Amino acid sequence: MSTLSLSPRWLGHLTTILSEHKKATTYALATVNTDGEFPIPRARHMVHRSILTSHPARPILISTTDVRSPKAHQLRSHPSTKGPTAEVAWWIAEEVVQFRILARVHVLPAPSHPLHSDFSFSELSQNSGGDSGPDAPETAEDWEALRIKTFNNLVPPLRASFARPKPGSLLENPADADKWPQTLPEYGKEETEEEKKQVKEALANFTLLLLEPLNVDFAELGVVPNRRTQWNFDGQKWDEVTVVP
C-alpha cells in the first residue's frame, strides 16, 4: 500500500523516540572514498545534535565533524549530485527499531573556509510556508549563529578536540598529545588570551553536517509481526510504502 504525505510519518516516529530516549543519539554514517584505484566504503559513528524543520517536507538532521576529516572530503566528492551522498544506520535498542536514511549531506564550515561559499544557503534557508523550527536559519548570519551555538553546546573536552592537529595525521611523538588542550570554554566565555586563541582555532575546524533525507527505511522489530515502512522523497512530497521486514 502506498500513501503520499507532505510531512513524513517517519519524522514523527523519530522525534517521539528521541524525546523518550535522550541518549539514543549515536548512529553509523557510511560514505565512499573515491580517491583511489577503486571505491572504498567508510563508516563511523556520529552523534545526532538536532533537527531543523524549516519546511515540513524537508527536515534536516544535524551532526558535526572536523572540516579536515576524510568524511568531509568524501561528502564533497560529488558536489553537483541531487542524490544521496551518505547513508545513516540508526539502531535504537530501547525501542528495538532501526532507521536507515539515505541523505544528501551539506557541509557547513567556518566562513573563512573555502567550502563555505559552496553551502546551499538559498536552498536550505527557504521557508515555503511550512512550520519553522526555533532555530531555522534564514540568512548566512543565522547559519553561522547556529554553528556557534552547536559548538557551545558541546561538552568542554569535545570542543577542545577541534583544536588538535588534523584527524588521522601521523603522531610521531605520542608525548605531543600532552600539549593539546583537554577542555575549552564556550565561544565568548574565554578567560585568557591562550583560551581565545585555542577556541578560535577549534571554531575554524568545527563544521556542521546537515543531512537532508531522501529515502527512509524504518524497521520495527519489537512488535509481532515485525513491521517495515519505507518513504521516498520526490522533491515535493513523501511517498510511503509498507514492505516485508
TrEMBL record:
Q: Where is the composition biased (Polar residues)?
A: 119-129
Q: GO: which molecular function terms? A: FMN binding
Give the start-end ranges of region Disordered.
Answer: 119-138
**InterPro entries, per this entry?**
Pyridox_Oxase_Alr4036_FMN-bd (IPR024624), Split_barrel_FMN-bd (IPR012349)
List the SUPFAM superfamilies: FMN-binding split barrel
Limits of the Pyridoxamine 5'-phosphate oxidase Alr4036 family FMN-binding domain: 9-108
Q: Which Gene3D superfamilies match?
A: Electron Transport, Fmn-binding Protein, Chain A
Do you know which PANTHER family this protein is assigned to? AGL049CP, PYRIDOXAMINE 5'-PHOSPHATE OXIDASE ALR4036 FAMILY FMN-BINDING DOMAIN-CONTAINING PROTEIN
* Protein name in UniProt: Pyridoxamine 5'-phosphate oxidase Alr4036 family FMN-binding domain-containing protein
